[in-house]
Specification:
- There is one protein chain.
- It is built from seven helices and two strands, in the order αααααββαα.
- Strands 1-2 form a two-stranded antiparallel ribbon.
- The relative contact order is 0.10.
- α3 packs across α4 and α4 crosses α5.
- By secondary structure, it is mostly helical.
- The protein has one domain: Arc Repressor Mutant, subunit A (Orthogonal Bundle), CATH 1.10.10.10.
- This is MarR family transcriptional regulator.
């Protein structure tokens, strides 16, 4: 028969949330440093990646998928448009809807960002084998799904 830990020990966190928080903090700093060398922020890289995947989005859709507020997305879109990374185009059926898409310059910058992020991931995962990497990816997706389902 397995001995149960005292009630107080069962109420203590395992430390996983802390470790994930620390990983997030260090990874964010490394992303900021790597992408900063290319002249872009992590949020801009995320937005360019989302636009590349989705082809065209509204400002509100971009904000949601980039995990930033609509106000922040609006400012970021203005800055990226001014740099020539994205283009705006009015919807053919509804003039008030503006679609955003990558420009050729934005696409080239995204490729550079992808290379920088891939290098960072390679360094972060260097001590894991291919099977371990696949399992980690699957477990992280499971954690995200479980955490997203929690209603407080």
């Amino acid at each position: 028969m397995k001995k149960q830990p005292p009630a107080a020990a069962q109420d203590k966190p395992s430390g996983i949330a802390y470790l994930i928080g620390r990983i997030d903090h260090v990874l964010s700093r490394r992303l900021r440093d790597s992408l900063g060398l290319l002249g872009m922020t992590a949020a801009q890289y995320t937005a360019l990646s989302v636009l590349d995947t989705q082809q065209q989005l509204s400002n509100a859709q971009l904000a949601e998928r980039s995990m930033i507020s609509p106000q922040s997305a609006n400012e970021m879109v203005k800055a990226m448009e001014a740099r020539g990374w994205i283009e705006r185009q009015a919807d053919a059926n509804h003039g008030r809807i503006i679609h955003l898409r990558l420009s050729a310059e934005g696409s080239a910058l995204l490729r550079q960002g992808d290379a920088a992020v891939a290098e960072l991931e390679r360094a972060m995962l260097a001590e894991l084998g291919p099977d371990q990497r696949g399992e980690l990816h699957a477990q992280l997706r499971l954690l995200l799904r479980s955490l997203s389902a929690i209603v407080l």
